[in-house]
Specification:
alpha/beta; 8 helices; elongated
């Protein structure tokens, strides 16, 4: 039986692909106040602004490709049973070939009912040539279509699935996250004692004792770690 690797990824995973993070100095929150575009209150106040913001993000996302870090995470599947738990809303892990990806904060390439976000009947997958939603477009239940994104203040429905995966990990890898965003940051506490934990990030991260940090970007860090794991 293959050993199980769980990989937790954050915004730093996709930076090398050209996607801005939200929180860094030149991040998207500097251009668009988070309260306006990433909260339920912002959606209620101006759904047109929110719809157009995520249309813009989708167009940017379709223009980028997985980086070497994404591809090396997928390559781990040659030897291991791999689950990727990502805080990112892009689909670069899937494009790189990862087959089991748990999205904690939603998926940019999907839209859903604003009345019942997780009703599968009204979740629509968008494509590269049809990635924009006209403001005012309605879901099958008559409510406005909204981004399939977990807004700030909303529950994170997949966190229990992610916690179960973390508990089963034989190796736990963290890439490109400051471990400041909860509940995702708490997943490391579900890892069983004695399980190796690696953290790849060019900046110092306070991840607690027993974590081996590789202070490099996603691609360079994964190249170093793969020498050990593959």
């Amino acid at each position: 039986m293959k050993k199980k690797i769980v990989v937790l990824t954050g915004a730093g995973m996709s930076v090398e692909s050209g996607l801005k993070t939200f929180r860094d100095a030149d991040g998207l929150w500097e251009e668009y106040p988070v309260q306006q575009v990433a909260t339920h209150e912002g959606w209620e106040a101006d759904p047109t602004l929110v719809t157009n913001f995520y249309n813009m993000l989708r167009k940017k996302c379709w223009g980028v490709k997985p980086n070497e870090g994404h591809r090396l995470v997928a390559k781990l599947e040659e030897k291991y049973d791999v689950t990727v738990v990502t805080q990112n809303v892009d689909n670069l892990h899937e494009e790189a070939g990862s087959t089991h990806v748990v999205h904690l904060h939603g998926e940019l390439m999907k839209v859903c009912s604003s009345r019942d976000v997780d009703d599968p009947r009204y979740i629509r997958q968008l494509t590269a040539d049809n990635c924009e939603i006209a403001p005012g477009t309605k879901a099958g239940d008559g409510s406005l279509l909204r981004p399939y994104i977990v807004f700030f203040g909303e529950a994170v429905p997949n966190i229990s699935i992610a916690a179960e995966e973390a508990q089963q990990a034989d190796i736990f890898i963290i890439i490109g996250t400051s471990l400041n965003v909860y509940p995702a940051a708490g997943l490391v506490h579900y890892v069983r004692p004695g399980v190796p934990v690696y953290l790849i990030d060019p900046k110092p991260v306070n991840a607690g004792g027993g974590v081996k940090q590789i202070m490099k970007g996603a691609s360079e860090g994964m190249r170093e770690l793969c020498k050990e794991l593959l």
